[in-house]
């Protein structure tokens, strides 16, 4: 099987708020949209983030009222410290400050307007950490 692209779909209360956050701060761009739906692509990510309005009838009955909870939307970046600084300067609240793990993971988190946790990870060798 060949997978050409990946996507993650998130049920949120306010599709426009999450779409604006991902577009303004992370460089995602709208590829498709309809009432209660937007698909965002990124030129570097190789994946789409699909936002669906909670309660949308197109969703299966058992899932339509759920929201994206307990999920972390993670992106690998080349410079976590620089990315954190840029987002802070843009007024984005850093909900988990930059952290260096002994195994080489450098990460921080922000939270979008719908409560979706967005994590940025830089992988370093343990010697660099």
CATH superfamily: 2,3-Dihydroxybiphenyl 1,2-Dioxygenase, domain 1
CATH architecture title:
Roll
Q: What is the number of independent domains?
A: 1
Estimated share of beta-strand residues: 35-45%
CATH-assigned fold name: 2,3-Dihydroxybiphenyl 1,2-Dioxygenase, domain 1
Task: Using the CA coordinates, give the radius of gyration.
Answer: 16 Å
Brief characterization of the structure:
Residues 2-123 form the VOC domain. This protein has 129 residues and is of the alpha/beta class.
How does this model look, in words?
With 129 residues, the protein is an alpha/beta fold. It has a single domain (6-55, 67-123), classed as 2,3-Dihydroxybiphenyl 1,2-Dioxygenase, domain 1 (Roll), CATH 3.10.180.10. 17% of the residues lie in helices and 40% in strands. The chain has helices at residues 15-26, 80-89, and strands at 6-12, 29-34, 37-41, 47-53, 72-76, 94-100, 105-111, 117-123. A four-stranded mixed β-sheet has the order 1-4-3-2, with helices on one face. Strand 3 and strand 4 form a beta hairpin. The protein is globular, with a radius of gyration of 16 Å. InterPro entries: Glyas_Bleomycin-R_OHBP_Dase, Glyas_Fos-R_dOase_dom, VOC_core. Residues 2-123 form the VOC domain. It comes from Kitasatospora setae (strain ATCC 33774 / DSM 43861 / JCM 3304 / KCC A-0304 / NBRC 14216 / KM-6054). It holds the Pfam family Glyoxalase.
Helices and strands, with pairings:
Layout lengths: L5 E7 L2 H12 L2 E6 L2 E5 L5 E7 L18 E5 L3 H10 L4 E7 L4 E7 L5 E7 L6
Parallel strand pairs: 1-4, 5-8
Antiparallel strand pairs: 2-3, 3-4, 6-7, 7-8
Organism: Kitasatospora setae (strain ATCC 33774 / DSM 43861 / JCM 3304 / KCC A-0304 / NBRC 14216 / KM-6054)
Protein name: VOC domain-containing protein
Pfam families: Glyoxalase (PF00903)
């Amino acid at each position: 099987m060949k997978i050409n692209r990946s996507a993650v779909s998130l049920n949120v209360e306010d599709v426009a708020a999450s779409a604006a956050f991902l577009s303004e701060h992370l460089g995602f761009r709208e590829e498709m949209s309809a009432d209660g739906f937007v698909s965002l692509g990124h030129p570097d990510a190789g994946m789409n983030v699909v936002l669906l309005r909670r309660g949308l009838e197109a969703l299966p009955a058992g899932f339509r009222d759920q929201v994206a909870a307990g999920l972390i939307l993670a992106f690998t970046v080349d410079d976590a410290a620089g990315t954190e600084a840029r987002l802070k300067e843009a007024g984005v609240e850093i909900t988990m400050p930059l952290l260096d793990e002994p195994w080489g993971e450098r990460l921080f988190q922000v939270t979008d307007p719908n409560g979706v946790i967005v994590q940025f990870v830089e992988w370093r060798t343990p010697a660099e950490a």
